[in-house]
Amino acid sequence: MNMETGKNYGRIPNEATLPDNAEEAVCMCVQEEKEDADNVIAALKLRASWGDVDGVKHVLRSCYVSRRMTDDALCEAAAFGFEHIIILLLKVGGRPTATCGDKTALHWACQNGHETCIRILVVSMENLSQFYIKDARGLTGLDYLRSNDELAKADRIEEFAKLKFETKDFLAGKSPTLLS
Predict the structure, then answer these.
(1) Contact 121, 105 (CB under 8 A)
(2) Does any domain span residue 5?
(3) Where residue 145 sits, what CATH number does that domain have?
(4) Residue at 180 is within a domain
(5) What residue numbers bound the domain in which 29 lies?
(6) Nearest-CA neighbor of 137 among 175, 111, 157, 168?
């Protein structure tokens, strides 16, 4: 750590090897976790629960963070509706199917009605089955929206998800099922 500049070189061999966008380059997930993983998870989750984008970036830059370690923070950001943190965590390698407790980030966003967060998570999913993942109670994210009397929002989100994956399949040369 350079005390004058505040830069942490613990993960970076030397400054000369960094690309022009060095700040973004050091914000990425690593393959293996270190012994302080629980502390890093707690730090990420705390900063995510307050919507502290700079704090989340700081933890990502200064600690070894695996994809799994972003799960709690991603769920927390989804529960509170912090879109910028969701985007940041997904950008650095977080999983859109992140689980915290018995629910995914999508369940938390749906339970609290954060439509923009839901859409961000859907866009980052690989297939429609990820959208319909059930929690421990057997409920999908849409079930949470519907149980909160947000029927129109649930319909919009479901249509958005189907269209997203239908378009993806169509562009990949697979036969469309919704448009036929």
Answers:
(1) yes
(2) no
(3) 1.25.40.20
(4) no
(5) 15-171
(6) 111
Q: How many CA atoms lie within 13 A of 15 on its CB side?
A: 5
Q: Please, which pLDDT band fits residue 20 given cuts at 50, 70 and 90?
A: very low
Q: What does the pLDDT read at residue 19?
A: 42
User: What's the pLDDT tens digit per position in 30-79?
Assistant: 666 667 889 999 999 999 999 999 999 999 998 889 899 999 999 999 99
Give how many domains the chain has, as a whole number. 1
Alpha carbons 80 and 65: distance in angstroms, whole number: 22
Distance CA 44, CA 37 (A): 10
| Cα separations in angstroms, 128 against 42, 47, 123, 153, 175 | 31, 30, 10, 18, 15
Residue 28 confidence (pLDDT) above 80: no
The pLDDT value recorded for residue 58 is 94
Which helix (H) or strand (E) segment holds residue 100: the answer is: strand 99-100
Tokens of 89: 């965590």
Q: Is residue 141 part of a domain?
A: yes
Residue 71 falls within a domain, yes or no? yes
End-to-end CA distance of the chain: give it in Å, rounded: 59
> Any idea which residue has 């129109």 for tokens?
152
